[in-house]
Amino acid sequence: MEFQLSDEQSLLVSTLRRFIGIELHPLEDIVEQTGELAVEDAERILKNSRDLGFYAMNIPEQHGGGGLSTLDWMLVEEQFGYTTDILIRRAFGNVYEILLAGTPEQQERWLLPSVKGRRTFSIAFTEPEAGSDAASIRTTARREGDTWILSGQKCFISDAHFSDFFVVTAVTDQEAAHRGISTFIVDKGLEGFTIGPDQPMMGLRGTTHADLFFDDVKLGPETLLGPEGDGLKLALETLGRVRLAQIGARAIGKATRILDLTIEHARQRKQFGSPIGEFQMIQKMLADSAMEIKAARLALYATACSIDRGNEAREEISMVKVQASETLGRVVDRAVQIFGGSGYAKGLPIERYYRDARIYRIFDGTSEIHRTVIAKALLKGAPQLYDLVAQ
Ligand SMILES: Cc1cc2nc3c(=O)[nH]c(=O)nc-3n(C[C@H](O)[C@H](O)[C@H](O)COP(=O)(O)OP(=O)(O)OC[C@H]3O[C@@H](n4cnc5c(N)ncnc54)[C@H](O)[C@@H]3O)c2cc1C
């Protein structure tokens, strides 16, 4: 067992930290205050990130990406956790691996431009009546000769107004239940496809979230991603590593940065003639946060290594999703407490972190749903989830 970064990994982490410190940190407050990232800033971030090789690093080299192992990808995402979600999205790309399931023609048309940063896309699964229960969607795609006719509505879609296309689930066979859902690539601008207004959120400033409306949108046969009826299987197979990265690793990075700021504050802030860090109740909070971050990070790396050994690690990913996002929630809550009134005040970073962190326990499967996944596996017999000897 190795618990040390290689020289290459150390270089990757330190270069990335420098990039984030120089390019992204100065923009955080501006985006928070204005609610948007200026186009010229977004373009500069993309260019500089691409020049340094950070953009779409998770995608295999043969598709123009960085070809990172899962572990190295997690190291990268953990560093990106040091900044806000929208800046990560612009600097790293959020190129979901689901497009790797496409035909060579689909990869040429949709994956390659995404890896180069020329087009961006979002995943659109959630509907007003189908959130956790992803199989209960009502959006349909019915076949008419060679084309598909898409009708329905998606909601809460991240970055909706900035995306050029969407990966959308739709029912293609009403009788086939789970096996009757397929996935389509839907370009913005098609007749009958409208994007609703921004739904303001508690946090995550700098981007938009919106409903998508499909009113008999005509889709060509080339837009079906993966085999017909395999939509949910495709999502299950391709979104796990993304979840580990975008939620697990980023949450741990965020928690680490918050703890850094909190320790600094506990050193500086004096009450009753002493730095507040000398009070035992403050010390307990700092120690608890450090212990929880460390445990979550080890679980993240162990899961990443397991995937790199060829395992699917579905339940382990769920474990990290819950552990990391809930650790982030506790760490930021303690930070507000330790910062006192300035932790609650707008304009200082802790209040923003508090709002931004809350969604991590909800999107990409709530804590409850992931606990259900873990518990079902345990009840079927999966001692390897908690017993090293059984692995
Ligand atoms: C900021 C933001 C960004 C998002 N981005 C996207 C996106 O880009 N693409 C996309 O497709 N979706 C996106 N979503 C949707 C997100 O994934 C869903 O909100 C999430 O999956 C939960 O679904 P829901 O909101 O319908 O809650 P519900 O499914 O209605 O759940 C409500 C509560 O019931 C609990 N619950 C439900 N079922 C069970 C069960 N079986 N056992 C125990 N408890 C249960 C849940 O855990 C939760 O606490 C986004 C949401 C937000 C807020």
Task: Spell out the blueprint of helices and strands.
Blueprint: H1 7-34, H2 39-52, H3 70-80, H4 85-92, H5 104-115, E1 121-124, E2 140-144, E3 147-158, E4 165-171, E5 181-187, E6 193-195, E7 209-219, E8 224-225, H6 231-238, H7 240-268, E9 270-271, E10 274-275, H8 280-308, H9 314-339, H10 341-344, H11 349-358, H12 367-381
Helix pairs in contact: 1-3, 2-4, 3-7, 7-8, 7-9, 8-9, 9-11, 9-12
Q: State the major sheet.
A: 4 strands, mixed
The share of residues in helices is 40-55%
Mean pLDDT: 96
Strand % is 5-15%
How many helical elements?
12
| Overall geometric form | globular
**Architecture of the largest domain, according to CATH?**
Up-down Bundle
Helix/strand structural class? alpha+beta
Q: What is the first-to-last residue Cα distance? A: 14 Å
**CATH-defined topology of the largest domain:** Butyryl-CoA Dehydrogenase, subunit A, domain 3
Major sheet: arrangement of strands = 1-4-5-8
Per CATH, the superfamily of the largest domain is Butyryl-CoA Dehydrogenase, subunit A, domain 3
Radius of gyration over alpha carbons? 22 Å
Number of strands: 10
What's the level 1 CATH class of the largest domain? Mainly Alpha
